[in-house]
Amino acid sequence: MAHFFISIKRFVDEPYSKILGYPKATSRQIKSRIVELEKLKIKSIALVGSTTLGKTAVLGKGYVGVVVLAKKGTKEVALKIRRTDSQRKEMRSEAVLLKLVNSVNVGPKMIDVSKNFLVMEYLEGIKINEWIDSLKGTGSAKKLKSTIRKILEDCYRLDQIGFDHGELSNISKHVIVGKIKSTIIDFESSSINRRPSNVTSITQAFFIGSGFAKKAQKIYKNPSKEQLISILRQYKEEKSRESFEKLLKILRV
Predict the structure, then answer these.
(1) Which of 101, 129, 186, 232 has the fewest CB atoms within 10 Å around its CB?
(2) CATH number of the domain at 6-121, out of 3.30.200, 2.40.10, 3.30.2010, 3.40.50?
(3) pLDDT tens digits for 98-139?
């Protein structure tokens, strides 16, 4: 899909400046950020996405930053812009975490970073809650199982390196499904200093008591809550491939 890109030089003025310095920035801060973008070779930004800032469309918004579609040279990338009110003073620490998850083939690829910006691979896709609503007819169960399996495998790899995403109980914001691949996104709350619970968190979000779980149940029959909790307890203690395989088997994915 072709997008309309706006030169970053136009982001000095409203309404575009609101994106570069959300929620509030001085004209000096905006100009400084444009210079920073030029150093990263970011030439333009497309205001597209299912999230809005005022009346402006963006790819996403979190406590740390706003994510937009941008162009680095001729390549489309996802650009995370640090919020001016963020408690995080720079974006480099998040880039380190993203590089770590990339080392086990999880998440969008980290491309570049500066104080206020994180440049990542742009993965065109939709949020998993929207995607499950689009599943209809023959083959729906197969597609759903395949996507759940892929995300569970990603979570298992994160558990194995002692990395905790931190927000996977809220899958609607943190899992996107694309034509090329499905992936976990947004690692701003992640940590390597707490016990990882990626597989248990995502399994509960997929199958126990969420809006997604109710929709999934209509597409294919899930195991009982008691069975799931029992196998998750075993996995939590061992975090072994054997206990993970048992989980996949009981989930039939």
Answers:
(1) 129
(2) 3.30.200
(3) 999 999 999 999 999 999 999 999 998 999 999 999 998 778
